[in-house]
Design goal:
It contains 11 helices and 9 strands. It has 290 residues and is α+β, with helices and mostly antiparallel strands. The two termini are 34 Å apart. The structure holds flavin-adenine dinucleotide.
Length: 290
């Protein structure tokens, strides 16, 4: 990603970055199984065999492997009715099974599948909206009380990129914010009678927690986000929509692009919605908020 600079050297980014750090993976199958199979979850092998479903279940998993999260969701859903034997919906019809889960609103089985992403090139305005999603999410965000001024970067949203006048206002504002941050930092250090290099971590934290108050919504706010697929879907449905803020809409679409190839069946119901007046894509589904 290009890191831009204003004429005064203030750094800013113009697009969100999404990196998948972790997602549901299969665990090692028990040693006596022939291969590490998508269907042979270590936690379920003993149970499946005790119940007498071993041959049918493992055989199908070997013949028709599914992505691990999809296999897990299908197993969890089928466990509910002990549909683990010959008569169950086999992996070849997994898409049909997953679609039925979505259509009937049994979204809890999607909660077993999770993904962790790192977002950067996103603003504090975006993350303030992101952290409003309470259910099924975990967040870890760069602390403005710990970060030093030299790590400060800002984010320019699409509207500002498309207008020279708005872009100049943005550049002036982030220059002024970065400068103001530095001035406040020096005044605070002087007031506390300490030097930057000799200050303890606690003293620096005390300085930065006050200096940061001048930082705008446009300040970059990198964040690690973990959520299960049910929650990710709800986030994307709300934010990749004609009604959402442009920056978070673009970010939600990028999250969808990063996650959907990992478990295509869990996302296959999403189709392009109307393109927004600002040119951003949206997504729509017949199975909202499963
Ligand atoms: C276009 C748009 C505009 C917005 N504008 C504003 C605004 O102006 N001001 C503002 O404050 N917020 C605003 N929001 C944020 C919005 O109100 C929600 O806080 C946010 O979208 C998270 O949605 P959620 O509560 O459904 O998700 P989550 O918090 O992830 O919850 C998921 C689901 O769990 C259930 N749930 C969660 N908590 C509870 C609870 N306490 N009680 C009962 N059920 C619960 C609900 O069914 C909920 O949909 C806006 C959101 C959007 C998409």
């Amino acid at each position: 990603m290009t890191i831009h600079q204003t004429a005064k050297g203030t750094r800013y980014l113009t697009a969100p970055r999404v990196e998948v750090l972790a997602h549901t993976k299969r665990v090692r199958a028990r040693d006596h199984l022939p291969i590490i199979s998508p269907g042979a979850f270590a936690f379920s092998n003993d149970f499946i065999e005790e119940m007498g479903f071993g041959d049918s279940y493992v055989g199908d998993a070997l013949d028709n492997p599914l992505p691990p999260g999809t296999e897990l969701a299908k197993f969890a859903g089928q466990l509910c009715y002990l549909s683990l034997g010959e008569q169950r919906t086999k992996n070849a019809q997994a898409q049909q099974y997953i679609d039925h889960i979505k259509a009937s609103g049994h979204g809890s089985v999607l909660e077993h599948v999770s993904a962790t992403v790192l977002l950067w090139g996103v603003s504090r305005a975006l993350t303030h909206e992101l952290v409003r999603h309470r259910v099924g999410f975990g967040f870890s965000q760069v602390s403005q009380r710990y970060i030093a001024g030299r790590h400060l970067r800002f984010v320019e949203t699409p509207a500002y990129q498309q207008s020279a006048e708005l872009h100049n206002l943005f550049a002036d504002w982030i220059d002024a914010s970065a400068e103001q941050y530095q001035i406040r930092e020096s005044v605070l250090l002087n007031t506390m009678g300490i030097g930057y290099d000799t200050a303890t971590t606690e003293q620096r934290k005390a300085v930065r927690q006050e200096a940061r108050r001048c930082l705008p919504n446009e300040t970059e706010a990198p964040i690690v986000v973990t959520a299960n697929v049910r929650s990710w879907r709800h986030f994307i449905e709300q934010r990749c929509s004609p009604f959402a803020d442009a920056e978070i809409c673009r970010c939600a679409y990028a999250v969808y692009q990063a996650l959907s190839p990992l478990e295509p069946m869990l996302w296959s119901d999403y189709t392009p919605g109307p393109v927004r007046p600002d040119g951003l894509p949206t997504l729509t589904t017949p199975y909202r908020k499963v």
